[in-house]
């Protein structure tokens, strides 16, 4: 499948030139659930053609079928594990012709594994988080950036976390990986200065997705995280990402920190 992208601009209510995303092409990693899936639906409503990646092929195919039927867009699905360097880079090379037209990269894939004091946490959990949250993001971004530089346009959105700003107990390595996402975003933005490529780091607080289920590997414990309060939803974050993407071309939302109203910091949560 060949997906061609185009850029159109619309005037905002004050005469600003807003970016119309219709016809653009976006790649979203970790698109089978949560924020990645919500981004796919938000962008599809805007008429954006999509390349969706993830490890659960059946989910990708179901999302593809629904989006193409409902929104009359083109959707390409790539089933692979982003933490496997050779497989990731080889597959991207196979799809390079499509990726030449890429306008938007949303590095959403990632997660937290385990919750324990540093000296009691599992090294295996560390490796999973480092491989996906940092190395996976680096692999795909390293491949895409030269293509965007050739076009002299693009927008890279990285899914960080408030954990990339403030460390909390029993999460040191996860927090370290999200600090890395913040540093990579800032460094990338500096390296791409003058290339007409925007870089945005989205940093959510408590969002109810599969995040806690993966971290605790226990459904009841996962539910306890959000008990007595109203967390953010995946769609809340997808809407923030969409807003960032639609800013006028001269505007770059460098960072966005989003907490639910009932969370004041990584330590403070109001519960009824």
What's the overall geometry?
A: globular
The total domain count is 1
Can you tell me the CATH class? Alpha Beta
Predict the CATH topology. Answer: Rossmann fold
What is the count of helical runs?
Answer: 9
What fraction, in percent, of the residue positions are helical?
Answer: 40-55%
Strand order of the largest sheet: 5-4-3-6-7-8-9
- Helix/strand order, N-terminal first: EEEHEHEHHEHEHEHHHE
Could you give the distance between the termini?
Answer: 51 Å
Kindly name the structural category: alpha/beta
Instruction: Give the mean pLDDT.
Output: 91
**Strand count:** 9
CATH superfamily: NAD(P)-binding Rossmann-like Domain
How much of the polypeptide forms β-strand, as a percent range? 15-25%
The profile of the biggest β sheet is:
7 strands, parallel
Radius of gyration: 18 Å
Q: Please tell me the CATH architecture by its name.
A: 3-Layer(aba) Sandwich
Could you explain the architecture of this structure?
By secondary structure, the chain is an alpha/beta fold. The protein has one domain (9-258): 3-Layer(aba) Sandwich (Rossmann fold), CATH 3.40.50.720. The chain has helices at 34-45, 57-71, 85-94, 96-99, 123-151, 172-191, 211-216, 219-225, 234-245; strands at 8-11, 17-20, 25-28, 49-54, 75-79, 104-107, 154-159, 197-204, 255-258. The strands form two sheets. Strands 5-4-3-6-7-8-9 form a seven-stranded parallel β-sheet, with helices on both faces. The chain has a two-stranded antiparallel ribbon with strand order 1-2. It is globular, with a radius of gyration of 18 Å.
């Amino acid at each position: 499948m060949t997906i061609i992208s185009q850029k159109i601009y619309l005037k905002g209510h004050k005469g600003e030139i807003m970016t119309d995303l219709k016809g653009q092409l976006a790649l979203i990693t970790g698109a089978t659930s949560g924020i990645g899936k919500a981004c796919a639906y938000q962008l599809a409503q805007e008429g954006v053609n999509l390349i969706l990646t993830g490890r659960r092929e059946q989910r990708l195919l179901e999302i593809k079928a629904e989006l193409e039927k409902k929104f009359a867009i083109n959707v390409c699905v790539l089933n692979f594990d982003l933490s496997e360097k050779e497989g990731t880079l080889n597959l991207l090379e196979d799809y390079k012709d499509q990726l030449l037209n890429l306008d938007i990269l949303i590095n959403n894939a990632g997660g937290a594994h385990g919750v324990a004091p540093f000296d009691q946490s599992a090294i295996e959990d560390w490796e999973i988080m480092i491989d996906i949250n940092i190395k996976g993001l680096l692999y795909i971004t390293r491949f895409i950036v030269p293509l965007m530089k050739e076009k002299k346009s693009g927008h890279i959105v990285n899914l960080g976390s408030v954990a990339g700003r403030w460390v909390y107990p029993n999460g040191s390595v996860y927090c370290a990986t999200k600090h890395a996402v913040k540093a990579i975003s800032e460094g990338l933005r500096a390296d791409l200065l003058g290339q007409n490529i925007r870089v945005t780091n989205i940093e959510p607080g408590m969002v109810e997705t599969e995040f806690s289920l993966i971290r605790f590997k226990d459904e009841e414990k996962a539910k306890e995280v959000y008990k007595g309060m109203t967390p953010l939803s995946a769609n809340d974050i997808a809407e923030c990402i969409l807003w960032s993407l639609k800013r006028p071309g001269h505007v770059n939302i460098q960072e966005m920190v989003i907490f639910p109203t009932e969370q004041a910091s990584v330590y403070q949560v109001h519960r009824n």
